[in-house]
Structure formats: structure tokens, C-alpha cells
Amino acid sequence: MTEEKETKKKIEIIENSLGRKFPSYIEGYGEVIPFQGAWSNLYLKKKPTTLSLGSEIRPQDKMCSTLEEALKKCKVFNGMTVSFHHHLREGDGIVNLTMKALKEMGVKGIKLAPSALFNVHSGLVDYLNDGTIETVLGSMNGSIGVQVSLGKMQGVGVLRSHGGRVRSIVQDDMHIDLAVIGAPTADNYGNANGIDGKSACGPLAYSNIDSKLADKVIIVTDNLVPYPASPISISQVNVDYVVEVESIGDPNKIVSGTLRIVRKEPLITISNNTAAVVEHSGLMKEGFNFQAGAGSISLLTVERIGEMMKKTGVKAGWVNGGTTSLIVDLFRQDYVKKLTTCQAFDLVSVESLRNDKNHLEINIDEYANICNKGCLVNLLDIVVLGATEVDVDFNVNVNTHSDGYLKHGIGGHQDTAAGAKLTIITVPLARRDNPIIIDSVTTVTTPGECIDVVVTEDGIAVNPLRPKLEKMLKEAGLPVMDIHELKELAEKKAGKGYVKPETKERIVAVIEWRDGSVIDVVREVVPKEKK
């Protein structure tokens, strides 16, 4: 009997600690380690991989006239894993440029390992169909996620948190053959940063680990400067080749629809309730720190927190981001002493990182890797996060919608929720005719044990594991109620209960917890019109 047949013979259906069931071995993914709790595998560490050393090229020969030349020198091959960063978000031009070149070179079966994909990458759907891309090992936002949900990808996708991605690279769960790094500024020896140049996007935090551990590294820049480029986000010691192109992307499209404040109900009420939870949590005191997401509710909440800080005189020690102009304004008014940034969400934040003292760039290893000796998320006092769904056990879904389609990545959701002293989830009770508080989420992204409070427009639910916090919020007069009551209100607003999407048995994507265990899977969706 062959080894493959032996493996298939041993496959069984296993269940993780949240009751989610899947095969013990998933073809295209491998052996499954079932999730057993948010902190259960904290010390279950494999030996880290080492830095990628050595090169056959002479030190002075890093410049290539075209991207194609650099790719050829990297000896690209079928089935290779190629990584990218997403700091330019909807303005990114490097992923499409590189994949077009690889396709023209006839490379097949690529394992695409971006830190995230966006709608600007929708053209990659064609590469899923023709076999250029075998699988996506990273966040799939928008149209790519929809196509994967419909079974249009040959392989099995893997979604990891920002910190989980770093962990997977460090522990060689995801070995990167080639990292292509779009750099707004670089010199001819490979030193690069993201704060200068016409395409300045802020940090290059996502590609920091890729540059260190990928077998080959190409820097692509549209602002080649005399040696040495400074400051240095990506170091020359990790770079094989440098290519100058006309444009790496459009920084004006860093700000996408999810990064704009929408001042309407129920968002305003939810943000007011959230700010009240922060105020009465006992954590908002001199030197506190926090992180908020980039959705409208989070942005409105930051605005309200800023107003409270100005009213009370309480100042934050530091704030982490995904940094926005709202946070920069508080920083420049001295209500925040220091900013740490691993992603700039607007051009004001890019400019601040370039010019303001005490605004620091941190990489994703420093931010959220569970397997290093101390990441920033462990020090967070408060984090405000969103969700597509929340269930009565406080489990949170951010990856799929209620229709089962995969439309979002994990980002730092798992990492910050597990690390912060106070994790707040903000959601409206219903979106269109879908209740958002339900019995059991379509897909588990972050386990309920990491969630402290769920805030909606009509009420606030506190995790029963946090009785002291619940008492404090009730005594402050906040509208605290049981999560089951919120579920009933959600169904009334939606006009119906949760309808489970129809799916096939085929697993199209695996959702990993930040330690590498499998917290859930996404199965191929049966389109409603084709039932």
C-alpha cells in the first residue's frame, strides 16, 4: 500500500473544543491539529526555521532591468510559494504585475501567500481557473473569496491571523520560496522603506518576516535612491534583487470604503455605547493603551474616546494601529504619548510616521506572533473589533457572511482579542434581513473565551466569564442584558431567524487559530439560484 493510501485509510472525523468537526487529514492541507483552547498550545513550539543565508550572486549585481529578469534569476518553478504584502491595499500594483509575469513565463500551480488580497486583485480569478494559482495562503477579501467559496480554486486555502502568518513562516509551516516586496523607496543594494517616495504607504511591516526567511527576495520600487536608503525597514542583507518600475501602486487607494466614517444610526449609538463601556471598565486611566479597527463603528468610537480624554484629562501611554488620522490628531495634541504602527490606514498616518518623533514602525512579529518572547498584543488594555456574526457563546465570525461566502480575512482579530485585557465586539443587531447575534456562527474565527463584551445599538452583553465587569457596567447604568435577549432582538429586527447556508462536503479553506491549530473550516457553497 502506498503512503498516500495509508494516509487516506487513517482519516477520521475529529472535533475541536468548540464542537466544530472536520477530517483529521485534509487533502491539500495535511494533518489537522484541532483547536483546544485559546491558550492551550502556547508552549507547543516547533524549532524555528533559520534565516535564509547565502546567494550565488555577486554583491554588486542586485539591480535588474525588469521584473522578468529578476524572476528568471530567482529560478521560478511550478508549485512555488510566492508572497506579497498589502500595505497599499486597493492601490496595490505589485501582485497583479508579478502574477502576469509569472503566467507569461508559464509557471503553474503557484501557492499565493499574500498578507491579504483585495478587489484590485479580482483579475487573479482567471489564474485560479487556468491553474496558474493552485491555492491562496492568506486573507481573501471580496471577489477572490467568493470564487474560492464556489469551489473555483484547485487547492485548499488557509486563513491565518497577522500573528499566525508570522508564526507559520517562522515554524516553516508555510515556506516561502519567493517574496516580492513593493517598496516606495529603495537603494540599489536592497535597503527599503515605505515612508518616502510618491507611493509612500507607511510601514513595510508585513514583509519584514518574508524578507528574512524567504529563499529569494525581490524588491520592486518606483523610487530608487542613492545608497544607503534611510530609514531601513527591509535590510540589504535579506535582499537578492532590486527592480525599478514606473509605479508600484496608488497610495490614495489605501483608504478603502471600510476606512471612512459613516455618521448614521445604528452606528452612532453603538459607538456611544462602546465608549461608555471603555469609560466604566476601570481601564481608562492615565497611561492606558488601546487599539481599534478601521470600520465606521471603531472610528466613531475612537472619536468618542478622544472626547472623553479631553474632558477628563486622561492621556494614553501608547496606541497601536492600523493607524488613522483620528489617532494621529490625538497624538499630536499630546493625548497619546506614543504611536506604534504596523499599517497606515490613510496618508495622514504615513506622513506622521515619516515626520513625527515617537511614532514608531513595528513589524508583525513584534506585533502579534504568539511564539516569540513577547508581542505587543499581550500588553493591550483595550481593543475594539467588528464581526460579521456573533453567537450566544460569544464566538465571533469575521471570515464568512451568513450566506457562507468567504469575503474577509482575519487580520489581527484573533491576536488582539486573545491579548487585550478588554476585548469589545461591536455589531448592529441585523444587517438587511440577517440577524447578527445567532445561536451558532457560520464560521468560528475567534473563540468566545477571548471576548469580553458585545455591544449593539439596543444593548450590551457581557461574557458570563467576566462577572466583575458585568457588575461595573450595570452599576454605571449601561443597558446590559443577556446575550440570548440580544439574539431575540436581532431576530425581530431581521424579521427572521438565522438560516444556515447550504454547503457541500468539500473543504475550500481552513481557518487556523493563531497557534496553528484548526478552529474551523469553510465548505463549498451551493449558490441559491442553482439549488
UniProtKB/TrEMBL annotation:
Key word Lyase present in the record?
Answer: yes
Its keywords, alphabetically, are:
Lyase
| Domain of life, source organism | Eukaryota
The UniProt transmembrane annotation reads none
GO MF annotations for this entry? lyase activity
State the Pfam families in the record.
Answer: CitF
Protein known as? Citrate lyase alpha chain
